[in-house]
Amino acid sequence: MSNGTILVADDDAAIRTVLNQALSRAGYSVRLTSNAATLWRWVAEGEGDVVITDVVMPDENVFDLLPRIKRTRPDLPVIVMSAQNTFMTAIRASEKGAYDYLPKPFDLKELITVVGRARAEPRGPKRVGREDETGEAIPLVGRSPAMQDIYRMLARLMQTDLTVMISGESGTGKELVARALHDYGKRRKGPFVAVNMAAIPRDLIESELFGHERGAFTGAQTRSAGRFEQAEGGTLFLDEIGDMPMDAQTRLLRVLQQGEYTTVGGRTPIRTDVRIVAATNKDLRVLIRQGLFREDLFFRLNVVPIRLPPLRERADDIPDLVRHFLAITEKEGLPAKTIEPGAIEAMQHYRWPGNVRELENLVRRVTALYPQERISAALIESELAPTVEAEAPSNVPDPNDLSGAVERYLTRYFSGFGEGLPPPGLYHRILREIEMPLISAVLGATRGNQIKASELLGVNRNTLRKKIRDLDVQVVRRNARI
Fold first, then answer.
1. pTM here?
2. Same fold: 317-391 with 402-471
3. Which of 391, 395, 393, 411 is nearest to 403 (CA)?
4. How confident is the model at residue 475 (pLDDT cuts 50, 70, 90)?
5. Would you list the DSSP string of 145-162?
6. Could you tell me what percent of the chain has a pLDDT over 90?
7. More confident residue, 151 or 420
């Protein structure tokens, strides 16, 4: 007995054959066509339970056909395939009402799973977004499998208000993803407000987020709107959420639970209508174990987790990214450049500790500083060489030089803020960073014996116990070696 009829439209005969075989084995009846006109006739006559179609057909672009299909048969799931594999392709598929989007080449098992889900979970009509995206700037670049997974997830999130947690190393493009969620989502007409939690002094975070009333504290001469009020009806992007102090975390949790807040110095609750997108380059689960981040807040924010891969995990995207940055620099008035294949290959073998941001800086630098039109592999290797040499074993600092290591760390830390300064409370943050590995190492050396550990550290035993509890240090008792 057939599981239903699948209408397949693709002008590639080989793909039609493969899909026919796979779907037939899965128990479906299959009808095949190489043009959009036949597909539209079948749909208009009421045939088919699911449509699988390529975007670019010989007679019509399926994105032009999709609105007619959704008006005529709004419950008919349409699965879109494309070899273009860009972020905008996934977004347009979602906005035109496609059930799902699959980049070519695709996994046949995944396609069968998507078809089965479409048959089991028929959908009503979806809200159609903007009709024409042609010519718009592409906010995200890359065709690697890792980026395709992100595109598909973002496309599914566009017409929702679900809270999103974006994690990834610095420079991977977390704010770009947050902006894409806003600019192509249902709140696009509202404001997008970004706030970096690591850049705000701890004693001003609550005022920054929730605003304050006149006279709420010394220097509050007038009422000030907070970021929640500024983002009303739109999206609030909380970057570096792992740096939010505990008291502010408590207030944020209350807002997420109750949907309202009060200004600093205010008494009247204010209802809020914002979508929260948070981002972090830290492992929040580690911070939870250390008592630095609320577990209940984590689960409120981590409704839909998105992990952005570092550039070293998506090296195949480097040619597209380089072309993208070259086009930007040319529009900004810098000389037009081309990158030789050998130079691209050199970039693909580099580790990119600064990720996409570091790659963009490199492209801007070679475009601005070098007169030659073609950028060679030798030039790129010379640009990347200083970083590589700094990481070479011959230049590794003396591991016994603790004060020197701390000084080097702090130099890098302060340089990350450019002309600014880090948030207050640095003394206690550094002590906390050092205390945990120190106590863990001493407990390991004493095989979990806290009496010996307190003697070795030169602190009272009760003090050590409190530190172990506050820092959530795992104490493992081991038998002495024979």
1. 0.63
2. no
3. 411
4. low
5. HHHHHHHHHHHHHTT---
6. 41
7. 151
Distance CA 277, CA 161 (A): 10
Third-level CATH fold of 5-129+138-148: Rossmann fold (3.40.50)
- In degrees and rounded to multiples of 5, residue 254 shows phi and psi of -65, -40
Round to whole Å and give the CA distance between 420 and 417: 5
Structure tokens at 387: 């970083």
Query: What are the CA-CA distances from residue 72 to residues 66, 312, 419, 454, 469 (Å)?
Result: 10, 46, 59, 76, 64
- Terminal Cα-to-Cα distance of the chain (whole angstroms): 71
Q: Nearest 5°: phi and psi at 164? A: -125, 135
- In this prediction, residue 271 carries a pLDDT of 93
> What CA–CA distance (Å, rounded) separates 48 from 68?
16
Compute CA distances 255 → 208, 251, 260, 261, 269, whole Å: 15, 6, 5, 6, 10
Q: 3-state class of 429 per DSSP? A: helix
Q: Which amino acid is at 3?
A: N
- pLDDT of 476 higher than 70: no
The predicted structure's pLDDT at residue 34:
92
- Which numeric CATH code is attached to 317-391? 1.10.8.60
Name the β-bridge partners of 50: 6
Residue 184 burial class via C-beta count within 10 angstroms: exposed 0-12, middle 13-18, buried 19 and up? buried
| CATH code for residues 160-216+223-307 | 3.40.50.300
Q: What is the pLDDT of residue 463?
A: 85
Which bin fits 173, alpha (ψ -120 to 50), beta or left (φ > 0)?
A: left
Any idea which architecture 402-471 has in CATH? Orthogonal Bundle (1.10)
Q: What is the DSSP string of 322-371?
A: HHHHHHHHHHTTPPP-EE-HHHHHHHHTS--TTHHHHHHHHHHHHHHH--
Q: Pick the residue with more confidence: 23 or 403?
A: 23
> Could you tell me whether strands 192-196 and 304-307 are parallel, antiparallel, or unpaired per DSSP bridges?
unpaired
Separation of alpha carbons 174 and 170, rounded Å? 8
Per-domain boundaries in the chain: 5-129+138-148, 160-216+223-307, 317-391, 402-471
Which residue did the predictor score with more confidence, 96 or 422?
Answer: 96
Q: Which helix (H) or strand (E) holds 53?
A: strand 50-54
Which tens digit of pLDDT belongs to each residue from 133-174?
333 455 788 888 888 888 888 888 888 899 999 999 999 999
